[in-house]
Each structure stands twice: as C-alpha cells, then as structure tokens.
Write a structure and sequence with these properties.
The complex is a heterodimer of chains A (98) and B (130). With 98 residues, chain A is α+β, with helices and mostly antiparallel strands. Chain A contains three helices and five strands; from the N terminus they run ββαββαβα. Chain A is globular, with a radius of gyration of 13 Å. The chains are: A alpha+beta (98), B alpha/beta (130). Chain B: It comes from Streptomyces umbrinus.
Chain lengths: 98, 130
C-alpha cells in the first residue's frame, strides 16, 4: 500500500486522502460486500478507481462490476472529515481479500 | 443502531429462493432479517399467498419490509398480499432478483432506511456486470 494526503489544505476544505492497493486476489463478491458495508459507515465521499473507471464503493454491484483482478492496482480516495479512516479501512479490506 | 429493514425473497422455486438466501448472507450479511417464500404450500413450483404473508410478518422489525419477487406469478401473488394487507412500510420492488437481493441486503446491513434499501434494489437494474 502507498499513501498520500494533503495536510496543508486550508482549514475550509475537507480533508482528502488516497491509497493504492495491489490486489492479492480477484475483487469478487464477498470482499465487494465487505467494502460496501464498510464504506457506508463513513461520512466522507469515497471513490474506488480501477482501470480508468471510478465507482462509489457503497454500491456492491458497481464494485463487482469493476472486474478488478489479482495483481492489479486499485486506488481508494476519500474526501471528508473521516477521509483518512475511510481510506485506511477500505484499503485494509482490499489488501486482505481472499 | 435502529432496526434493520426486512427483506423477503419470493420465488417460484424453494430451491432458488433458499440458494439466493445463502448467497446474499455470504456477500451481504447474515444479520439482516431475511425470509423466503419459495414454491407452493405443498412444495411444487409456483407461489403461495400464505408463505408470502408469513414471510413478510417474520421479517418485520418496525423499519419496513422490501419484497422482491422473481417474476410472473410471484409478482402477482406478492401484489395480491400487499393489496389485502396494505401498509406504507411494506414495498414490493421491481428489481432483478439476484442483483436486487444482494444490493438490498448489503444496504440494509449498513443500517439504511426503507427508501434507501428499496432504491438500491431498483438501481441494481442499471449496474453493468462487465
């Protein structure tokens, strides 16, 4: 996993956070369900990006529809006051998916 | 967290409904109230008014119920049950059976309200698999 954030953002802007994960397995139904449920617990706007496609991870079917395969890179992005926690939680699910 | 929206799967086939229940419990959650009404009262292919009504009652935790029929007479039976027992918080939802069930259960598991769960199931129609 690699991470980046912009702590220098002005105080009026919502924090942004981003991480990339190399998938240890195909992003199939079960981890997609875990991602969707986890994403729904945060208030930040979250995006998953894979192969030039971006989806909202609260949509389990959209996550499955990415068709992300083992060894490929998925980027998790969030913007909001719990952006860092959201990105950390979702990246963890992606990085440990079986 | 408040009570979860309940989900009812209405299918012509008891095996189809119970298989879909196993699938959504794996992908979505095994904590969302979920009942199936599959097949006729005597286990044949078809749908049962009494099984649908009992299934709705069994998943009602006060947050509303989403009823997902597979097709044809499952739709008609579910609509008849709801017409006989009209309630604003029990909705029959027009959605693809498998995808709608997965979306509904995942959304309900996150504590979403009835409208959000219903919308998630309906929107399953517009999500591409490829």
């Amino acid at each position: 996993m690699s991470t980046s954030s912009n702590p220098t953002t002005s105080t009026t802007a919502a924090p942004k956070h981003e991480m990339t994960v190399v998938l240890p397995s195909n992003l199939h139904a079960r981890p997609a369900g875990q991602l969707a449920r986890a994403a729904a617990t945060f208030t930040s706007a979250i995006q998953l990006e894979y192969a030039d496609r971006t989806v909202n991870p609260t949509g389990v079917l959209a996550v499955m529809g990415l068709g992300a395969t083992v060894g490929s890179t998925v980027t998790v992005r969030a913007e909001g006051h719990d952006a860092e926690q959201a990105v950390t939680a979702l990246a963890q699910i992606l990085a440990t998916a079986e | 967290m408040s009570a979860s929206v309940g989900i009812v799967l209405v299918s012509h086939s008891a095996e189809l409904a119970s298989g879909l229940r196993l699938l959504v419990e794996q992908i979505g959650s095994d904590t969302v109230p979920l009942a199936i009404a599959g097949g006729t009262d005597d286990g044949r292919i078809g749908t049962s008014y009494d099984l649908v009504l009992a299934a709705i009652r069994s998943v009602d935790r006060g947050a509303g119920v989403v009823v997902l029929p597979d097709l044809g007479s499952a739709v008609l039976t579910a609509r008849t049950v709801l017409e006989d027992h009209p309630r604003p918080d029990v909705l029959i939802v027009d959605a693809p059976f498998v995808e709608g069930a997965v979306a509904a259960v995942v959304t309900a598991a996150s504590g979403a309200d009835l409208k959000t769960v219903s919308t998630a199931a309906k929107e399953a129609r517009n999500v591409h698999k490829l």
